[in-house]
Design goal:
four-stranded antiparallel sheet, homodimer, 14 strands, 2 domains, 421 residues, Aspartate Aminotransferase, domain 2, Aspartate Aminotransferase, domain 1, alpha/beta
Chain lengths: 421, 421
């Protein structure tokens, strides 16, 4: 919020409005990403900030005729209210999609949601009392952190390395928290091409983490929007494939088809299903039949696996350009992850650099990124940043990373000069 | 939930699952309507239970070409993520729609939601701490009651008569609750053709209720899905037209266009807007660009006011048939409302009749309704029921009401016989 916004806000605030809010409203604050997007979306800026999928590969003519035909042939159903749990046919097709990552599921255990964000919201609603602990990777997805915080969770980050969450760090965190008498509700993680770190959790760590959580009676919330976007080989099986009782699995069509329909899903242990459906009905009544049936037609009649392959080629080429340019131009003092899929590279600078304070200089150099603190609930991450290669053209990525390299180089030198003086 | 379901639920429940739930999860229970719909949707049953709009009047060819053209011309935008607050052009058009009911609004103060149910959810999230009081009409919309209950509100019903909420009853309720030290967060009401009672709140009562709430510093949440569906004359101006500071207004395209896009909105006092947008982003990230732009194209290029007139004709004819049949066949001991718009008639039977217990007999007679208790948070309403005339054909309505008259007649006689013995 700019100062001007704050001013305007205050001027018009009805008397004592904040006194009427619920306690949780204090946690409804704009995310760091949010204020950034207005700036980053200006056309002269190369945005390495956003996580928007690249839709240039989508066959628009085909999509247009799918939705046209859907309304002509099934308008009375597609434009009507639908089931709170989601369209039965789509839930069956979702099982086929998940089978690609080793999951065997019953369509009855799936809830279709308005993007997987809604699933995160509903799971938080069912499980989180104020003060309950949610374990997350360090760093973690900004949208999940925002939701957990609105439900007044105490978010605890667990160490990652280049192979994702570190099982021993998880054990230690649980032990410490239990010793403190804290109530741990679930572990939230993104095993494939993590947002924001871009790393992949190998199969053996998956098994180890599943064992730890099962033994400690902590649910795992496995968020998997990028799982089918592996560049050189398929991702390891989903964690849900190994454990159907202790894993809540979240999927999404936003990165494999398009985000504009806002269709995601949760696959949950059977015992949880009814509560989840009721929570969703209370939240949105029902997901859009029209959006669900559009996705369903697309899956039924189009070569959707080939389409995912096109996405993979497109993102892989962009990842290559980003890594090449980082290797060629970024200062030696910086390190970064080397993603094997997905959208993101995570860059770590020397600890004296504050990436949030550096942002205005980057904007002047016509490049934007997301400062690392956005991905921590605890203020950590100030010398890191997330770079996305999903959306811009390869040329723009090269241009943006080169510009950013200059900004970082200058900032490091400025810090060195300050220290020497 | 059937006994069999309960059994299945228990068998598969992971150890102590309920102990891991948040406190609020205890309030996530299936609504009375929910279990009913499976039965009521069987083709041989005349369902006077549902509130589904009648889409026979919708020009499907036109809708099909709107969505086709939208993707062909603007696919890159329509299928991408959008603004958390909602599409700017649609928010402007929503202002034009609301102007029909006397509202002057700034598009900046509108949040587009996944149906107005989501707006209810977000407002509850911002305002309701456990135990806070929410005032509602007696009876009130079942979907709102469910949401308030999930946020652990204490719902207090305020008396209605054939002209809607009784201002003096509101004054008394506030006085009593304040005397008890209770915290009242807002008054939720549906001034036009109320769901479930079908009554209309006249202009003078609107002004009086606005005065009371302003003086007592209680927000009004004005839910207005049916306002443009007045049968003989336009509805009085919206309450929001008179008070832009103390009214949160909820609108929906579900009954004036189609529900399948799941597009509603909230118009809020400026000071509330940012919190609402943040809460929505945390809940669903953003509403569907595709659905919003479809509605936007329809509003821009189609004679949508004529379309609403067709809806009005269609519903009015059905209302007439329902009232005629009630007048002709229902026992004298019953009374009912005479709606001037919207979808519903509220029937009151002698107090010894239990409409929930009577349901199986109605199903045998091939007719379904919603028992009155569904619309009360406090178990009241057992001798009333909601009849919808929106969806079935006039012939089916006649048939259903006649069948129901027989069931009610028999039930009254059975009760009389029991009493005489």
């Amino acid at each position: 919020m700019s100062n001007e916004d704050v001013e305007r806000y205050r001027t018009h605030e009805p008397e004592n409005l904040h006194e009427r809010y619920a306690h949780r409203a204090a946690h409804m604050k704009p995310s760091e990403i949010r204020s950034l997007f207005a700036v980053a979306s200006r056309p002269e800026i190369v945005s390495l900030a956003g996580g928007m999928p690249n839709l240039t590969a989508i066959p628009m003519e085909t999509m247009a005729s799918i939705v046209e035909k859907l309304i002509k042939d099934h308008g009375q159903e597609a434009l009507q209210y639908g089931s709170g749990q989601g369209h039965p046919k789509l839930r069956e097709q979702i099982c086929d999609v998940m089978a690609l990552e080793g999951i065997r599921a019953n369509p009855d255990d799936i809830l279709v949601t308005t993007g997987s964000q809604q699933a995160l919201d509903l799971i938080s609603r069912i499980f989180i009392d104020p003060g309950d602990v949610v374990l997350v990777e360090a760093p973690s997805y900004v949208g999940a952190l925002g939701t957990f915080s609105q439900y007044e969770a105490s978010v605890v980050h667990v160490e990652m390395d280049k192979d994702g969450l570190v099982p021993e760090a998880l054990r230690q965190a649980i032990k410490t928290l239990r010793y403190q008498g804290r109530k741990i509700k679930f572990l939230y993680l993104i095993p494939n091409y993590q947002n924001p770190a871009g790393v992949l959790l190998p199969a053996d760590r998956r098994t180890e983490i599943l064992d730890i959580c099962r033994r400690e009676k902590i649910f795992i919330v496995e968020d998997n929007p990028y799982g089918l976007l592996g560049f050189d080989r398929p991702s390891p099986n989903a964690m849900r494939a190994e454990d159907s009782e202790n894993v809540i699995y979240l999927g999404s069509f936003s990165k494999t088809i398009v985000p504009g329909f806002r269709i995601g899903w949760a696959l949950v242990p059977q015992a949880l299903r009814e509560k989840l459906v009721i929570a969703s009905e209370s939240s949105i009544l029902c997901p859009s039949n029209f959006a669900q049936m559009s996705i369903s037609s697309y899956l039924a009649d189009q070569p959707w696996r080939d389409q995912i392959s096109s996405f993979v080629e497109l993102y892989k080429a962009r990842r290559d350009v980003m890594l090449e340019t980082l290797d060629a131009y970024f200062p030696k003092a910086a390190t970064w992850t080397r993603p094997q899929g997905g959208f993101y590279v995570w860059v770590t600078l020397p600890p004296e650099i504050d990436t949030k304070a550096m942002m205005p200089k980057a904007i002047v150099a016509k490049v934007a990124y997301v400062p690392g603190t956005a991905f921590y609930a605890d203020g950590f991450g100030s010398w890191s940043m997330r770079l996305s290669y999903c959306y811009p053209t390869p040329e723009r990525i090269r241009e943006g990373v080169k510009a950013l390299a200059g900004v970082v180089e200058e900032e490091i030198q400025r810090r060195n000069t300050l220290r020497l003086n």
